[in-house]
Amino acid sequence: SYLLDGEGNVVMTIIVTHPEHVIQGKVAYEFTFTRLTHPSDEDWKFRNKQINLRVGDVRSTIEHLRAVNNKNFQGKLQLDRFMMTGHSFGGGTTVASIAQIPDIIGGVALDAWTYPLEVEKDLDSPNLQRSRLLFLNSELWQWRQNLDRMDRFCEKSGGTWKKLTLKGSHHHNFDESPLWFGPLLSKHILKLSGPNLDFEIGLRCIAQVCVRFGRNLLEASIESSTDYDVRKELDDPELIIGSDQER
Predict the structure, then answer these.
(1) Using CA atoms, how far apart are residues 153 and 132, in angstroms rounded to an integer?
(2) Enclosing H/E stretch for 174
(3) What residues contact 131, with CB distance under 8 A and at least 6 apart?
(4) pTM of the entire structure?
């Protein structure tokens, strides 16, 4: 689906529909997200197939939007600069899409899961140096190997890809899950969100990062905006810290 926001930008939401995306409950959450690390195992092949399908969805969505623009808007929409935001597997998809699709000039990867990526292939992409990406991570979920992959992308980009951390956050502070279960279950039993971070304040901060980083990305050139610090535009800048955090 797509719409126009208050500033005239086209906003698209991509819904994953491929049956291949479903893991069918055959691998436990903890095992899947932290312990399968060798790129030759079957789970990596399965997950890499999923992420390639998702990148294909992104590419098809851009092509569809351009077709709609030509048919219904007489080509009046300017569709040469795209940004992308995704959480978890969607964060990994954001990284892969920016590396593989030149039309996407940057985005925000929210607590990205980098395990499914073909890291060496994506690192060789010339798109890294001409794009900007912000890894916005949780403080309580990330681990060293995942952060190391992010570091490699940041280094290869020449400084246009960066990492920040949302203080006190857990992985599901970046989605709506805590709203379903309430603060007691989410924070202390299911551990979906950070115990000391107000969920609504955290979500507002995440939204501000995405919107303000995205606005700067779309309005400025890559060269003139590499020193841009989104924290200066936030209502609660103290919630964002610049150091890597791991579990």
Answers:
(1) 11
(2) none
(3) 98, 104, 105, 106, 157, 160, 161, 222
(4) 0.89
Phi, psi of 179 (to 5 degrees): -70, -30
3-state secondary structure of 216: helix
Higher confidence at residue 225 or residue 45?
A: 45
Q: How far apart are CA 114 and CA 141, in angstroms?
A: 13
**Token pair of 120 as six digits:** 């060496």
CB atoms within 10 A of CB 1: 8
Q: How many helices (H) and strands (E) does the chain have?
A: 7, 7
Which segments within the chain are labelled E, that is strand?
Answer: 2-4, 10-12, 82-87, 104-110, 132-138, 161-166, 240-241
Q: For residue 174, count other CB atoms closer than 10 A to its CB.
A: 25
Separation of alpha carbons 72 and 166, rounded Å? 41
Q: How far apart are CA 206 and CA 240, in angstroms?
A: 10
Give the pLDDT score at 230. Answer: 92
Nearest residue to 148 (alpha-carbon basis) of 115, 110, 100, 109: 115
Nearest to 118 by CA among 135, 141, 95, 140: 95
What SS3 state is found at 47?
Answer: helix
Cα gap 232→240, rounded to integer Å: 10
What are 64's two structure tokens?
A: 């569809």
Closest CA to 133 of 246, 213, 48: 213
* Gap between the Cα atoms of 57 and 60, Å rounded: 5
Question: Where residue 16 falls among pLDDT bands split at 50, 70, 90?
Answer: confident
CB 187 within 8 A of CB 158: no
- Distance from first CA to last CA of the chain, Å, rounded? 36
